[in-house]
Amino acid sequence: MQPFALLHRDGADHVEVLTGDVVTVAALDDIPLHRGRPTLAVIPYRQITERGFDCVDDGAPLECLIVRESRREPLDAFPPGPLSLSGGGFDLSDDEYGAIVEDVLRDEIGHGEGANFVIHRVYQARVEGDPIAAARSAFGRLLAAEQGTYWTFLVHTGTRTLVGATPERHVSVADGITMMNPISGTFRNGSGRLLDFLRDPKEVEELYMVLDEELKMMATVAEHGGQVAGPYLKQMTHLTHTEYLLAGRGSLDVRDVLRETMFAPTVTGSPIENACRVIARHEQRGRRYYAGVLALLDHDDQGRQSLDAPILIRTAEISPDGELRVPVGATLVRHSTAAGEVGETHTKAAGILAALGAVPARPAPARTEAESPEVQAALAARNTDLARFWLDSREPGALTVPALAGRTAVIVDGEDTFTAMLAHQLRALGLTVTVRPWTALPHPDVAAADLLVAGPGPGDPGDTHDPKMVALRDLIGTRLAERRPLLAVCLGHQILAGLLGLALHRRDSPYQGLAREVDLFGTPRRVGFYSSFTALAAQDELRTAHGRVEIARDPVDSAVHALRGPAFAGLQFHPESVLSRDGVAVLTDLLNQLMADVISPATNG
Ligand SMILES: C=C(O[C@@H]1C=C(C(=O)O)C=C[C@H]1O)C(=O)O
Ligand SMILES: NC(=O)CC[C@H](N)C(=O)O
């Protein structure tokens, strides 16, 4: 069978039928992109190794359909067809999957390895008869039955066939605007009140966490980072999700946009690099196309590149000999339970499995509740305490702090691209900012910078064998000794606190993806935490070899939320997080104090 693709994109009244030639390439950079010939790339999860991230390599190829002909067909040209499956079941039983959930909660989230992780399992069955005919039948069924999809599609590359109905845009580029679409929170239609789901802290926090992680990606691919719109409901036939939309201006090659955003936190976790290790550690098998993307690369009328890339979830892969796989996962967060996440995988698989005839179909959702004023108010309330920095647009220079203008800052990345968001904030305050990975240490830029920022990152700050902790301790220790301006955030702050003689403690209940108001040296501030460890202090003040240190600590458990000394400050929370309503105010105050006496080598000649 010749390669072809059937695409029904969000809101269209037709199906695009693409035919052409398939080439297999090794890397995203090799994806062909000729004017007048769009390319549909089928990008497997293993491409994440292009970012240097871990994965269990299953060798799934990156195939590209170079489109020779494209035509439109009406929706009714694809009626639901007959389909027969046999021998269906999950590769991991509910108990096995539940055990992995518990391991990840205890050993990873509980130990500071990250905030959220997606673990998958695979529904496997056999299709009777011709696999492509079966895929066409499934496509027609999905087209008829599934609502709220971003793409409903069938791609046949000459060997493998993928058919699915995915709710989620990974990334798109059109008219110079890059967009991402974090979707998280899952409600099984008919399983209770939508309003209760919208107010459930686990579901609320889960969406914020993926919002933060996609803002990190937008901070890398868009000139001024991403601006947040939403939240909205994503109503599908069997379930309802919540989502945000992120948009920003960018001019990168679309293949670079794809590489920098591999892959969405909604299907991996955060921080992303460590999430890939956690996934490899606990899944112990490849993901093939699950969590990868389809990517339609093209040019617009003015010759600018365009990209439309949905995430490969809610998708069946059918092999030439009729083996069918439907991978599905759930986002594990600190409030997760094994039973809850097992249930969520069944709910998510239901749309595609019902279309395949493997589970009973459900009636469409009742729209009335979704449109009620209470539901709309519950959604709007989600933004009340978020950082306006990421929600509003503003004039250039609106936030500039005179004491910072023209000064330089180097942010050392401890393997969490929250640093890219921090860089945008510090630039907005007037600093000239460079970000360096911890692996580049020691680096001459660091010593020269007016301000050094030691960034966040996964791991145990007290680990004396971890090369990253050793390098960060050395970096921070040197800066302290030089008595030059230093801001330390989260992991950086923990290491700073350790060097100042404070004890480090692993929390019984992690503070991963948690927003709260804290007293910061006499001012109440609402800020977001992503930590499992914390420093502890018995007093509000400390005399150290590096001078007098003031401590903002919790009245209940003595956790150190922040500290400041003569030329340094440490923040346990993330001022750059969308959860930190007062993040920019905190940075403005602290940096004003820290930098007030600095004479910049740049301005001083
Ligand atoms: C991981 C999947 O879906 C993602 C995870 C969601 C969640 O955990 O709530 C919701 C939508 C998707 O972004 C999947 O379908 O396999
Ligand atoms: N975000 C961070 O820097 C986290 C620091 C540390 N890994 C913790 O979990 O406490």
TrEMBL record:
Pfam families: Chorismate_bind, GATase. Its EC number is 4.1.3.27. The keyword Transcription regulation does not apply. Residues 95-348 form the Chorismate-utilising enzyme C-terminal domain. Keywords: Glutamine amidotransferase, Lyase. It catalyses: chorismate + L-glutamine = anthranilate + pyruvate + L-glutamate + H(+). The keyword Lyase applies. Residues 410-591 form the Glutamine amidotransferase domain. This is anthranilate synthase.
